[in-house]
Amino acid sequence: MATTDLHTDEASRQGASSCVGVFDSGVGGLTVLTALRDAMPTEDFIYFGDTGRTPYGSKPQEMVARFAEEISAFLLSKQVKAIVIACNTASCAALDKLSRTLPVPVFGVIDPAIDAALVHGKRIGVIGTSGTINSEAYQTRLSARGAHVWSKACPLLAPMVEEGLWDDPIAQLVVRHYLEDAPKSLHSLILGCTHYPVLKNVMSRVVPWVNLIDSAESTAEVVRTALHQKGLANTRGTGAIRHFVTGDASSYRLLASRFGVDTSSVTAIDVADLIVLGQQFAATPQQRMPA
Amino acid sequence: MATTDLHTDEASRQGASSCVGVFDSGVGGLTVLTALRDAMPTEDFIYFGDTGRTPYGSKPQEMVARFAEEISAFLLSKQVKAIVIACNTASCAALDKLSRTLPVPVFGVIDPAIDAALVHGKRIGVIGTSGTINSEAYQTRLSARGAHVWSKACPLLAPMVEEGLWDDPIAQLVVRHYLEDAPKSLHSLILGCTHYPVLKNVMSRVVPWVNLIDSAESTAEVVRTALHQKGLANTRGTGAIRHFVTGDASSYRLLASRFGVDTSSVTAIDVADLIVLGQQFAATPQQRMPA
C-alpha cells in the first residue's frame, strides 16, 4: 500500500458516506459501538479490536500510544471519516496526540464520562485499568472541575469480562474486592473502562448507593452532534458493521455475540502488517481534513 | 553497543563464573528462580521479568517468540553462560528456535514437567495460558509418550497471581471455575504456567485427588546436571541475583518480595532499547559456544 493512500488522497475522498472507525484493545469497546449504532442507525462502522495485544491496561503508556497510532493508520487506510477511541487506556495515552495529528476528527471516552458524572454531584469515584488510573487523566480533569475524587485501579476486571464472567459469583467477589473501600459519600462512579458496563448488575448490588456512569451513551451523543455540525452525518447508510481483529476471529465472534453486535464480517489482521502500516504513517507528513 | 558483543566475543568469555540468565513474562518465573537458587546456591543469576509486556498467554506465538529473542539478546549482552526460559508460553513459542540459534545452552520448563508427571501414571492433566494450551506443545509431547491428556486454558489465573490473589475466596472460586470438570481419574495435573505454584494450596483443596506437578524443581535439577556436565558449574559464586524488568520497578519489588526473592538490585529496561537489541541480534550471524 502506498503511504499517500493514508493521508491527502484519502482525506480528500472522505465524506458523509464514509464509515466511522471505532477501536479498542478488545471487546470492551463494543459497548461504545452499540451506543453509537443506537444513536446513529444510518451510519456504517468499522470496529477494530486489538485482541492479539489485549489487555492494554497493564502496558506502558508509550506502547499503548504506538498501538493506537498503528490502528488509526489502518482505519484511515479504510477511508474512515472519524475515529472513536472506544478504550479508556488508549484515550488516556493517545487522544491528545491523535487529535492534533490525524486528518479526521478523533473522539475519546473520558470527557463525555466526566460531563455525565458531574450531573449527579461533585463526589466522584473512578475505576479503570492500572494504565488509566496511573495516568491520572480522569483525576486531573475532575479536580480541575472542582470534584472530590476517589480512584482505584482494578486490573482483573477487564480480563474477567474478556473471559465471559459477567454476572456470576466470581464477578461478584472480584467486584466486591475492588469496591469494598468505596466511600459511602460518592455521588457517582465512573466506569473508566469500556469493559465495565457489562458488570453494571453486579456493581449495583455491591455499591447500590452510587450512580454508575457509563461513557458509552454520552460519547455516542458527542460523536452524533459533531458529525452533524461538520456536515459528516450519513443519513443513507445501512448501519453496516465490519470487524477487524488482531487475535483469533472465532473467539472474537463468540464473545462479541454476547454484546448483541452483528459479527457476520470479521477479518483477522496480522500484527506485523499493522506495525509496518503504523511506521509508514508516522514517517509521512499529515494534512488535516478541512473542518 | 556493538553487535559483536552479543556473539563471538562474549561467547568466548563466558565460563563457569558467569551468571545464569532466567526470564519470564513477569513474576511467575520467580518460582523457577527460587528452585534454581535452592539447587545451586553458589550460582549467580540474572532474572528478567518482561512486566511491561505481560501477560504473554493471550498473545500470538510469533510475538512471544520475538519477545523471547529480544530478552535472550539482552541476557547475552550481560555475558550469561546459559538461559532458562522460566515461562511456559515462551517455552512453547521459542525454545526450539533459541536452542538451535543461541551460542549458550537454553533450557525450557516443558520436558522437565512431563518427566515429573509421568512418574505418577499415564492419565495427565495440563493447565496453562491460552497460548500454552492452544500451542498443544504439552499435549503433543504427552501423547507421544503414551499419556491420556486432559487440558484446559485458564486465562484468569496468571493475572490473578500478578494481582497478589493467591489463597483467598476469589482464588478458590476462580480455580474451581477452571478445574470443576477435571476427571476424577487423573493421576497428575501439570501446572503449565510458572505463576501457578503459588496457587497449590487452593488447587489441592479443589482437586485433592491429583498430584500437582510444578516444573520448577525438575527444571532446576535438569539445569544443575547440565551445567556440571558442560564444566559450567560455578562453585565460587555468592548466589547474587540481579533483576531487570520492563515495567515499573517498585510494583515488581512489592510482588517479588512475596516470592521470598531478594530484590535489592532491580533495574528498569526500556522496551524500545530491548527491541533494537533484538533487531541487532537477529541481523548478526551466530556462533555456538563450544560444548
Low-pLDDT parts of chain A are 1-13
Class based on secondary structure composition and strand pairing of chain A: alpha/beta
Rg over alpha carbons of chain A: 18 Å
Distance between the termini of chain A: 27 Å
| Helix content bin of chain A | 40-55%
CATH class category label of the largest domain in chain A: Alpha Beta
Oligomer: homodimer
SSE string of chain A, helices as H and strands as E: HEHEHEHEHEHHEHHEHEHEHEH
Number of H/I helices of chain A: 13
CATH-defined architecture of the largest domain in chain A: 3-Layer(aba) Sandwich
**Mean residue pLDDT of chain A:** 89
Q: How many E strands of chain A? A: 10
Largest sheet of chain A: 6 strands, parallel
- What is the overall silhouette of chain A? globular
